[in-house]
Amino acid sequence: MTIQLDEEEQDILDSVERGEWQSVPNLQQEIERYQSHAQAYVQSIQKITIELPSSDIESLQELASSSGVSIPLLLSSIIHQYVGSQSIRQS
Questions:
Q1: b/e string for 65-79 if b means 16 or more Cβ within 10 A?
Q2: Interior angle at CA 49, CA 44 and CA 55, nearest 5
Q3: CB neighbours of 52 closer than 8 A, spacing ≥ 6?
C-alpha cells in the first residue's frame, strides 16, 4: 500500500530523511506541556445544537466532502472565521 503525500507532506518527509530534524533535549517535558495545552483546549469546547433545512445539510455534506473534512469541523471553521471577522470590524 502506497500513501499519497501532498507537496507539503513530501517536503517534511524529505527534510526528516535528510536528518534536518532534531529532538528537543527535554522531550518528555515538552510532550507533557503539549498534552496539557490539548487537554485545556478540549475542556474549553462547548457543544451546541442547531437545526438546519435538509437542503443546507446536503450542501454542507458536499462542501465538507470536497474539502476532505467532517461537517462539524467545517461548521466550526466557518463560525470561527465569521466571529473573528466580526470582532475585527468592531475594534
A1: eeeeeeeeebbeeee
A2: 130
A3: 60
Q: Are 54 and 60 in contact (CB under 8 A)?
A: no
User: Which of 2-11, 15-24, 82-91 has the weakest average pLDDT?
Assistant: 82-91
pLDDT at 91: 61
Model pTM? 0.54
Buried-exposed string 28-50: b where 16+ CB fall within 10 A, e elsewhere: eeeeeeeeeeeeeeeeeeeeeee
**What sign has the CA pseudo-torsion 69, 74, 76, 81?**
positive
SS3 53: coil
